[in-house]
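Hey, quick one: can you model this chain's 3D structure?
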Amino acid sequence: MSEPDWLRWSREMQAIAQTGLEFARDPYDRERYEALRALAARAMAAHGGGDPARIEALFAGEQGYATPKVDVRGAAFRDGHILLVRERTDEGRWTLPGGWADVNLTGAENVAREITEESGFIVRVIKLAAVWDRSRHGHTPKPFYAYKLFFICDVTGGAAAAGLETSEVGFFNFDEIPDDVSRDRVRPAQIRRMFEHLWHPELPTDFD
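Sure thing. Here's the predicted structure for all 208 residues.
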Protein backbone atom coordinates (compact mmCIF):
# COMPACT_ATOMS: atom_id res chain seq x y z
CA MET A 1 0.00 0.00 0.00
CA SER A 2 1.62 3.25 -1.17
CA GLU A 3 0.81 6.78 -0.11
CA PRO A 4 -1.24 8.96 -2.50
CA ASP A 5 0.60 11.46 -4.67
CA TRP A 6 -1.26 14.41 -3.18
CA LEU A 7 0.09 13.60 0.28
CA ARG A 8 3.68 13.31 -0.92
CA TRP A 9 3.38 16.54 -2.91
CA SER A 10 1.77 18.45 -0.03
CA ARG A 11 4.40 17.17 2.38
CA GLU A 12 7.20 18.18 0.01
CA MET A 13 5.75 21.66 -0.44
CA GLN A 14 5.59 22.06 3.33
CA ALA A 15 9.21 20.94 3.70
CA ILE A 16 10.39 23.37 1.01
CA ALA A 17 8.48 26.19 2.69
CA GLN A 18 9.80 25.33 6.14
CA THR A 19 13.43 25.17 4.98
CA GLY A 20 13.00 28.32 2.89
CA LEU A 21 11.65 30.27 5.86
CA GLU A 22 14.65 29.16 7.90
CA PHE A 23 17.18 30.64 5.49
CA ALA A 24 15.34 33.39 3.60
CA ARG A 25 16.22 36.96 4.56
CA ASP A 26 14.42 38.85 1.83
CA PRO A 27 10.90 39.75 3.03
CA TYR A 28 9.43 39.00 -0.40
CA ASP A 29 10.96 35.53 -0.37
CA ARG A 30 9.50 34.94 3.09
CA GLU A 31 6.06 35.92 1.81
CA ARG A 32 6.41 33.42 -1.03
CA TYR A 33 7.40 30.59 1.33
CA GLU A 34 4.51 31.44 3.66
CA ALA A 35 2.18 31.33 0.64
CA LEU A 36 3.62 27.95 -0.35
CA ARG A 37 3.05 26.66 3.20
CA ALA A 38 -0.57 27.83 3.06
CA LEU A 39 -1.00 26.15 -0.33
CA ALA A 40 0.37 22.88 1.06
CA ALA A 41 -2.12 23.08 3.93
CA ARG A 42 -5.04 23.73 1.58
CA ALA A 43 -4.04 20.86 -0.69
CA MET A 44 -3.74 18.45 2.24
CA ALA A 45 -7.10 19.57 3.65
CA ALA A 46 -8.82 19.29 0.26
CA HIS A 47 -7.75 15.69 -0.27
CA GLY A 48 -7.39 14.37 3.27
CA GLY A 49 -10.07 16.31 5.10
CA GLY A 50 -9.60 18.70 7.95
CA ASP A 51 -9.45 22.42 8.51
CA PRO A 52 -6.83 24.20 6.34
CA ALA A 53 -6.18 26.74 9.11
CA ARG A 54 -5.44 24.00 11.65
CA ILE A 55 -3.15 22.19 9.22
CA GLU A 56 -1.31 25.42 8.41
CA ALA A 57 -0.88 26.08 12.14
CA LEU A 58 0.56 22.57 12.48
CA PHE A 59 2.97 23.29 9.66
CA ALA A 60 3.90 26.68 11.14
CA GLY A 61 4.95 24.96 14.36
CA GLU A 62 7.76 23.22 12.48
CA GLN A 63 10.89 25.34 12.20
CA GLY A 64 14.43 24.90 10.96
CA TYR A 65 15.69 22.72 8.14
CA ALA A 66 12.98 20.14 7.39
CA THR A 67 14.12 16.61 8.21
CA PRO A 68 12.25 13.33 8.82
CA LYS A 69 10.92 12.66 12.29
CA VAL A 70 12.17 9.57 14.14
CA ASP A 71 9.92 6.91 15.68
CA VAL A 72 11.50 4.15 17.79
CA ARG A 73 10.02 0.69 18.35
CA GLY A 74 11.30 -1.99 20.71
CA ALA A 75 11.06 -5.70 19.95
CA ALA A 76 11.68 -6.98 23.49
CA PHE A 77 11.87 -10.75 23.93
CA ARG A 78 11.56 -13.07 26.91
CA ASP A 79 11.86 -16.84 26.47
CA GLY A 80 11.34 -16.47 22.73
CA HIS A 81 8.13 -14.44 23.12
CA ILE A 82 7.77 -10.84 21.98
CA LEU A 83 6.40 -8.08 24.18
CA LEU A 84 3.36 -6.18 22.89
CA VAL A 85 1.28 -3.47 24.53
CA ARG A 86 -2.32 -2.51 23.90
CA GLU A 87 -2.81 1.19 23.15
CA ARG A 88 -5.45 3.23 24.96
CA THR A 89 -5.89 5.13 21.68
CA ASP A 90 -6.13 3.77 18.13
CA GLU A 91 -9.13 1.60 19.05
CA GLY A 92 -7.14 -0.28 21.68
CA ARG A 93 -4.93 -2.17 19.26
CA TRP A 94 -1.68 -4.03 20.00
CA THR A 95 1.71 -2.65 19.06
CA LEU A 96 5.40 -2.82 19.83
CA PRO A 97 6.24 -0.33 22.60
CA GLY A 98 7.67 2.91 21.29
CA GLY A 99 7.01 6.44 20.14
CA TRP A 100 8.67 9.62 18.94
CA ALA A 101 12.33 9.93 19.91
CA ASP A 102 13.13 12.64 22.46
CA VAL A 103 16.15 14.93 22.32
CA ASN A 104 19.19 14.37 24.57
CA LEU A 105 18.64 10.59 24.43
CA THR A 106 20.25 8.10 22.06
CA GLY A 107 18.06 5.85 19.97
CA ALA A 108 18.73 2.96 22.35
CA GLU A 109 17.99 5.09 25.41
CA ASN A 110 14.76 6.29 23.85
CA VAL A 111 13.46 2.81 23.10
CA ALA A 112 14.44 1.45 26.53
CA ARG A 113 12.59 4.32 28.22
CA GLU A 114 9.50 3.82 26.03
CA ILE A 115 9.38 0.10 26.83
CA THR A 116 9.59 0.70 30.57
CA GLU A 117 6.98 3.48 30.51
CA GLU A 118 4.52 1.49 28.42
CA SER A 119 5.01 -2.03 29.81
CA GLY A 120 6.80 -1.86 33.17
CA PHE A 121 9.67 -4.03 31.93
CA ILE A 122 13.37 -3.16 31.94
CA VAL A 123 15.35 -4.14 28.87
CA ARG A 124 18.85 -4.35 27.48
CA VAL A 125 19.04 -3.08 23.91
CA ILE A 126 20.93 -5.56 21.76
CA LYS A 127 20.68 -4.57 18.13
CA LEU A 128 19.32 -2.03 15.66
CA ALA A 129 17.30 -4.40 13.49
CA ALA A 130 15.71 -2.03 10.98
CA VAL A 131 15.51 1.56 9.78
CA TRP A 132 12.36 1.77 7.68
CA ASP A 133 10.69 4.60 5.83
CA ARG A 134 7.19 4.81 7.31
CA SER A 135 5.63 5.81 3.99
CA ARG A 136 6.86 2.65 2.22
CA HIS A 137 5.48 0.01 4.56
CA GLY A 138 1.72 0.54 4.55
CA HIS A 139 1.40 2.61 7.70
CA THR A 140 -1.39 5.14 8.13
CA PRO A 141 -0.49 8.24 6.06
CA LYS A 142 0.65 11.22 8.14
CA PRO A 143 1.37 14.90 7.43
CA PHE A 144 5.07 14.63 8.28
CA TYR A 145 7.71 12.29 6.91
CA ALA A 146 9.22 9.80 9.37
CA TYR A 147 11.73 7.00 9.76
CA LYS A 148 10.99 4.06 12.08
CA LEU A 149 13.86 2.50 14.03
CA PHE A 150 13.29 -1.05 15.32
CA PHE A 151 15.54 -2.40 18.09
CA ILE A 152 15.93 -5.97 19.37
CA CYS A 153 15.89 -5.98 23.17
CA ASP A 154 16.24 -8.53 25.97
CA VAL A 155 13.95 -8.27 28.99
CA THR A 156 16.14 -8.13 32.09
CA GLY A 157 13.74 -7.09 34.86
CA GLY A 158 10.60 -5.32 35.89
CA ALA A 159 7.03 -6.55 35.85
CA ALA A 160 3.99 -6.05 33.66
CA ALA A 161 2.42 -2.66 34.33
CA ALA A 162 0.24 -0.69 31.94
CA GLY A 163 1.18 2.97 31.47
CA LEU A 164 -0.57 6.22 30.67
CA GLU A 165 -0.77 5.27 26.99
CA THR A 166 -1.32 1.52 27.36
CA SER A 167 -4.02 -0.64 28.91
CA GLU A 168 -2.57 -4.16 28.65
CA VAL A 169 0.78 -5.91 28.38
CA GLY A 170 1.43 -9.36 26.93
CA PHE A 171 4.01 -11.73 25.46
CA PHE A 172 3.32 -13.60 22.22
CA ASN A 173 5.13 -16.24 20.23
CA PHE A 174 5.48 -16.16 16.44
CA ASP A 175 2.18 -17.96 15.84
CA GLU A 176 0.21 -15.85 18.32
CA ILE A 177 0.59 -12.35 16.88
CA PRO A 178 -2.83 -10.70 17.44
CA ASP A 179 -5.04 -9.84 14.48
CA ASP A 180 -5.80 -6.39 15.87
CA VAL A 181 -2.33 -4.91 15.45
CA SER A 182 -2.08 -1.13 15.11
CA ARG A 183 -1.18 -0.61 11.46
CA ASP A 184 -0.51 3.01 12.34
CA ARG A 185 2.45 2.03 14.52
CA VAL A 186 3.63 -1.39 13.38
CA ARG A 187 2.81 -3.94 10.67
CA PRO A 188 2.40 -7.68 11.35
CA ALA A 189 5.17 -8.39 8.83
CA GLN A 190 7.48 -6.12 10.80
CA ILE A 191 6.78 -8.03 14.00
CA ARG A 192 7.50 -11.31 12.21
CA ARG A 193 10.73 -9.86 10.89
CA MET A 194 11.81 -9.08 14.46
CA PHE A 195 11.51 -12.79 15.28
CA GLU A 196 13.83 -13.52 12.35
CA HIS A 197 16.38 -11.10 13.76
CA LEU A 198 16.09 -12.85 17.12
CA TRP A 199 16.60 -16.26 15.58
CA HIS A 200 19.41 -15.08 13.30
CA PRO A 201 21.49 -12.46 15.13
CA GLU A 202 23.92 -12.36 12.23
CA LEU A 203 21.33 -10.66 9.99
CA PRO A 204 22.38 -7.14 9.00
CA THR A 205 20.20 -4.16 9.80
CA ASP A 206 17.28 -3.82 7.38
CA PHE A 207 16.85 -0.49 5.62
CA ASP A 208 15.08 1.08 2.67
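One thing worth noting: The chain is about 35% helix and 25% strand.
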